[in-house]
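Predict the 3D structure for this chain.
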Amino acid sequence: MRASRLVITIDGPSGAGKSTLARLLALRLGIPYLDTGALYRTVAAEVIRRRIDIEDDDQLESLCRNLDIRIQWIEDRLLVLSSGRDVSQEIRSERVGQMASCISAKAAVRRALLGLQRQIVAKNGAILEGRDTGTVVAPDAHVKFYLDARAEERGLRRFRELQEQGMDVQLESVIRSMYQRDRQDRERDLAPLRPAPDAVLIDTTDKSIADVMEEMIRHVRKRIHVEV
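Done. Predicted structure below.
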């Protein structure tokens, strides 16, 4: 199989290492990666900016119908544009993350973004990273992974990531926010966060990125015949 046609999903909660490993695996295979959470965060950022009532389904539907979200890959960096405006940094804030968790439970938002995600994947294959990529977005993916780690470890990773982005955050607040989002994502009725039945489960606690990467590569080689 040509690597360019591969579809690999990487699901799991925030701070499990999905984004970093998705980028590295995509570079290794020479195919794009798609952070599906970035799409939900973009909608969330627009909800906040336009002060939309998320309990008003008509407002949400109208927003999603008129949004123009574009994804570009510049080397290993994902550039996200909303109606031509670069929101790549804006969507990484904790406030936007919490709003993304809320609006991701809305059917209107999920319908709009599901079609967009599948269009992107259909063109060239992709490494998809998110919370329901293996269960909903690409249930027929060639290989599926589900990454997890202890909550405290994930909170510390997320805290350091936000600090590196120049954000003024408190560790306790980040961990509390992570617990809240985990609960929202796992308990929502629509496409809850959970491993696909055929996903490879990897606990990344106390493991280096390199070690997890090699473990994932072994599973890719085992499941499909492709040069990696």
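The domain at 3-223 is CATH 3.40.50.300 (Rossmann fold).
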